[in-house]
Amino acid sequence: MIQLYIPLNFLGVIYREIKQSLADMERLFGLLEQNKEVDDSPGAQPLHTTQGARVAFSNVDFSYDPKRQILFDVDFTIPAGTTTAVVGHSGSGKSTMSRLLFRFYDVNSGSITIDGQDLRDVTQESLRQAIGIVPQDTVLFNDTIEYNIAYGKPGASKAEIVTAARAASIHEFIESLPDGYSTMVGERGLKLSGGEKQRVAIARTLLKNPAILIFDEATSALDSRAEQAIQAQLKEIAKNRTTLVIAHRLSTVADAQQILVLDHGKIVERGTHQQLLAAEGMYAQMWERQQAKKDEELVET
Ligand code: ATP
């Protein structure tokens, strides 16, 4: 009986471990599983980013539910190696655009291309290899911080991991921990703050070195020092990459080569920060409102 009990007990422990890792995997891949209808087409080819990954949305219409259209005739190009930021009120469809670029869903009409290749004609594996996402909320595995960074590039050397961590401004923090890079993180280890988690995601992405980057800015309020740090890191990872920033704060988009203003699923304004301020439209209003809020905060503190 005892002989039987021990292995069973042991199996129980392993089962819990596996279940926990599966829960992590599920959370990570849950997004990918959102829509199983999106499949490789029979003749799908690997994506070739020959022109430096120029992204084009052409007259894109999209709805999750046929009764409610979310995007209307969305049309823009991100020239290779440049940054385009999308701003707009909550629910205007910003994150939906990033989901379509990652092909979690297919467009209803129009098309999305990368270097002229329609997303529906390329293999999903090659598409996801070409795109790095720094999400709002990063999933951490119950493993070491080193493993969590290396996840961006399986088999990465320690030197590569440290270089990525330095570029993401998290190396010093990791070194300050008693167990350094071997520190366990995740739900059952050290809990990281939102900003620290985002830095781990940035380090992962730097290791992955994708041609295209989607940066979904955290909605949670950051103090202005943390915000400046994130901006500096964003600049670092966006260098020479085609970047789509889903912005929740206007201060992070001022440097973008192109800003799109989305309102109820339609692009209503586009241009640089200066051009949009001069146009005195919706962007200028949003900017003024945000500046006023900042001034209020400054008075309060
Ligand atoms: P926020 O700034 O608040 O993140 P957003 O501009 O990124 O907002 P989206 O997340 O793109 O907005 O959502 C646009 C609309 O689509 C919202 O009204 C939302 O309710 C709806 N929506 C988002 N995801 C789904 C889904 N999986 N199924 C159905 N509707 C959805």
From TrEMBL:
<feature type="domain" description="ABC transporter">
    <location>
        <begin position="55"/>
        <end position="289"/>
    </location>
</feature>
<protein>
    <submittedName>
        <fullName>ABC transporter ATP-binding protein/permease</fullName>
    </submittedName>
</protein>
